Amino acid sequence: MHVRRCTRTACARPAVATLTYAHADLTAVVGPLASYAEPHSYDLCEEHAVRLTVPRGWEVMRHVGDFPSPIPHADDLEALADAVREAGRAETVTRTADGDALTGRRGHLRVVPPSH
């Protein structure tokens, strides 16, 4: 299971909020944890989300209430690997009259013998 961590330096707590800056509006928005990590947003633990301060002239818009704990989910790459393993379990082989294998199929992959 993959748990996103707070992006603040030396903080290893799990992230529960996402910070996004709206530079044109001089606003920092702290809301519930986004579904996916984005390059221009920052994941924050509850302490850092609540204590965030901004420069003079900026405004902070915060989520009202408690930040829900993130639901851990399997990494997308792990899910893909599991799907490939599952597809690879079924094996079929086409054979000639002599019993030689012509082609083999393992899940979504096909093995074709070299031509002689």
Written description of the protein model:
This protein is of the alpha+beta class and 116 residues long. It has two domains: 1-73, no CATH class; 76-111, no CATH class. 16% of the residues lie in helices and 29% in strands. It contains two helices and seven strands. The strands form two sheets. Strands 3-1-2-4 form a four-stranded mixed beta sheet. The protein has a three-stranded antiparallel beta sheet with strand order 5-6-7, with no helix packed on it. Strand 6 and strand 7 (109-111) form a beta hairpin. The longest helix has 12 residues, at 76-87. The two termini are 48 Å apart. The model has no long low-confidence stretch (mean pLDDT 77).
State the gist of this model.
This protein has 116 residues and is α+β, with helices and mostly antiparallel strands. The chain has two helices and seven strands, in the order βββαβαβββ.
* Topology as a string of helices (H) and strands (E): EEEHEHEEE
Give the beta-strand count: 7
Provide the spatial order of strands within the biggest beta sheet.
Answer: 3-1-2-4
Q: How far apart, in Å, are the first and last alpha carbons?
A: 48 Å
Describe the secondary structure blueprint for this structure.
Elements: E1 17-22, E2 27-32, E3 41-44, H1 46-51, E4 59-62, H2 76-87, E5 91-95, E6 101-106, E7 109-111
Parallel strand pairs: 2-4
Antiparallel strand pairs: 1-2, 1-3, 5-6, 6-7
